[in-house]
Amino acid sequence: MTMQGKNSAAPAHIETDVLVIGAGGAGMYAALEAARAGAAVVLADRSLIGRGGATVMAQMTVAAALSEETPDHWEHHLADTLASGRGLCDERLAALLCEDGPHRLREMEGWKVGWAREDGHIKQAQAPGHDRPRCAYIDFLSTGPAVSRTLRAQLINASGIRRIGELMIVDIAVRDGEACGATALHLPTGEAITLAAKAVVIATGGLTGLYRRNSASANMGGDGYALALRAGAELIDMELVQFFPIGHLAPRLVGMDPIMWDPFRYKLGGKLLNAEMREFEQDYATQDTRSDGRYVLTRDLATYAITREVEAGRGSPAGGAYLSFQHVPEAEIRNAFGPVVDRLAANGIDLSKRPVEVAPIAHYHMGGVRVDETLRTAVPGLYACGEAVGGAGGANRLSGNAITEALVFGARAGRNAARHALQNSLLWSAPAAHSALDLLRGARRRDAPNPAAMVRDLKALMADDVGPFRNEQRLQSALRAIARLKTEIGEVPSSSATAFDPALVDWLDLRNMLLVAQSVAVPALARTESRGAHQREDHPGLDEAWRVNQIVALARGNELKLSRAVPSSGRAAA
Amino acid sequence: MKAMLAIQRGVPGEPPRTESFEVTFETGQSVLDGLRALRCEADPSLAFRFSCINANACKECMMLIDGKVDYACTVRLKEGVMALAPLPKKGLIRDLVTEIAPPDERLWPRP
Q1: Each residue of B31-52: pLDDT tens digit?
Q2: Alpha carbon of A317 to those of A150, A314, A358: distances in Å?
Q3: DSSP, res A25
Q4: Distance, CA of A522 to CA of A559 (rounded, Å)
Q5: Distance (Å) from the C-alpha of residue B34 to the closest C-alpha of chain A?
Q6: Do strands B17-24 and B2-9 pair parallel, antiparallel, or not at all (unpaired)?
Q7: Whole-angstrom Cα distance, residue B50 to residue B36?
Q8: Is A299 among the residues known to form the active site?
Q9: What's the mean per-residue pLDDT of chain B?
Q10: What is the distance between the alpha carbons of residues A432 and A174, in angstroms, rounded to a whole number?
Q11: Using H for helix, E for strand and C for coil, what is the string for A117-161?
């Protein structure tokens, strides 16, 4: 690894074997495995290391066939995953997730992550869509923070990994069709940096930050998808955005993640009520044979149920449903959630006395970068892992599979990227960074539209027109609005300062977000059926002819190109 | 309801200045909600750190709020003046942003 002086005219330059972009669960695991395989690693994140991303926010569960609670086999987990995916899963990736999941959870256990235990075994809860208790967790609502902390401790103790926070990757550098590094903006100084790498791993998470109400970190605007597209890779299933049905809506809750009500339902069996204070999930359960009327509505169906109730005028005052635990004795609530009860009280919430209001919230992206079973993209040297990858969840990801996916795909991508790196030499050449460097150097103060307000407007239009319920007219309107915003931001970045410039970051984010928003809306418009997380009001019902994945790529002239492929089947070679 | 956020701004090497912004809010909204609204409505160059927005998981939005070290995502907006300043014992980068990254996770150590 080398570095040149920061004051020279040429940008500072770093060389490494493997560059991992994003330090959430997937990125940290990728860095660990790449280093274990003998590669020198740079782990870069635009946020502080281990603080951004989705993993640290996850308060829920991790699914794996551990056979701790009850006998299980990964093939049962796979069957549930494929059924939930409604015909669109990449079976190779789903199988990899289910087969490798137990190994990763055991490894994490060895690293003292602290899975909740009972009677000498790891406790596993039963989440909707699973045929048996399969979901490990860490009390109280601490699964994600504990997973993050554990991986970070391993990183700090590992050799060969350089962690660099506050580094925003602007573009992946490509030479002769192969990934050779990246160009980045160093946020604290505003300087451009180039990184040469023999392999690059995209671990930037999903795109739920494109939506007004979401459970994402600020850095989840889908930048990895834009990086992948511009590098020449393909995206798959981009129209499939998962909404978490019971995201917290009211009263305003601070200091807690809005998706925290699921564990309350697992443990205490909260009731979902409409404005008439009547339970309504049963009304929608018969539509799917896998839902047997208990709390087992998968996320797509529950989102559908709540939205339909609101549309029928039976919503709660803030526009969602009531979630009530009033039937549960206070002592039982305290026993199950301990200190969390006090955090709720500080927000004026007493579950034994009053219901809260919940509504669907953008939560996870089933779509993402298209990879093969080695987690490699169509671009040699470019890998992806975690939520950034598309295909494992099909049209509806099963609860508990996201962290498993982060750990499993992270480890695989890291190992395979290291293997590629150790067999190849650096391909870097300075011209590979020219266009990104020119973009950054062109940034200037100007009377541009407020980029923060444009990000807000984009989120609003995505929520209103490209949300869980779609129709042709609204999708067309969204595409027109996206095109208009693209024209407004122009080709030249706006900036307001040198160090830590939020205006420049917003502009660079918009450049990515608008491309990614278009990558969601275009296949959403094309898919004239309703399946899983993609519900078309003008095309209700599943159409067997649409059991195909849609692929998005960037053609010459920066136009999006849409194609179709039959879902991959068969098992991954381990 | 309206709050007046008196925000200490500037970069190292220049005298800090205080700029005041009025922000409209609803009961329960956080200081971070107010800062994010200001960037959309008043000044997109206003610099502050945040990542998780609401969960108090990332701990990036720590700043001085009415003289006390606290998280912008958990302190609620209130009517009247609220004074916001960067953390006093950390190196200033800009406005409310200070150097809180662990030294071995920086691109290069800065003085």
Answers
A1: 999 999 999 999 999 999 998 8
A2: 41, 9, 11
A3: H
A4: 11
A5: 13
A6: antiparallel
A7: 10
A8: yes
A9: 94
A10: 6
A11: EECCEECCECCCCCCCCCEECCCCCCHHHHHHHHHHHHHHHCCCE
d(CA B91, nearest CA chain A) in Å: 11
Mean pLDDT across A391-397: 96
**3-state SS, residue A47:** coil
Beta strands in A22-86 (DSSP E): 41-44, 62-63
> Is A143 buried (19+), middle (13-18) or exposed (0-12) by CB count in 10 A?
buried
Q: Answer whether A500 touches B (CB < 8 Å).
A: yes
- Among residues A92, A163, A299, A531, which one is catalytic? A299
Provide the 3-class DSSP secondary structure of residue A503. Answer: helix
With beta carbons less than 8 A apart as the criterion, state whether A193 and A186 touch: yes
Which pTM value belongs to this model?
Answer: 0.94
Cα separation values, B100 from A161, A165, A565, B59, Å: 20, 11, 47, 10
> Can you tell me the distance from the alpha carbon of A456 to that of B44, in angstroms, rounded to the nearest whole number?
12
Most distant CA atoms of chain B, gap in Å: 44
Please name the member of B40, B45, B53 whose beta carbon is closest to the beta carbon of A453: B40
The number of residues in chain A equals 574
pLDDT in tens, A34-56: 999 999 999 999 999 988 888 88
Angle subtended by helix axes A330-337 and A261-268, to nearest 10 = 120
A186 touches chain B (CB under 8 A): yes
Which residue among A3, A254, A456 sits closest to B76, beta carbon to beta carbon? A254
- Distance (Å, whole) CA A263 – CA A336: 10
Helix (H, G, I), strand (E, B) or coil at A192: strand
DSSP single-letter state for residue A571:
P
Confidence category of residue A181, pLDDT binned at 50, 70, 90:
very high
Q: Using omega within 30 degrees of 0 as the cis cutoff, is the peptide bond preceding A140 cis?
A: yes
For an interface test with B, give the residue of A191, A254, A256 to mutate (most B CBs within 10 A): A254
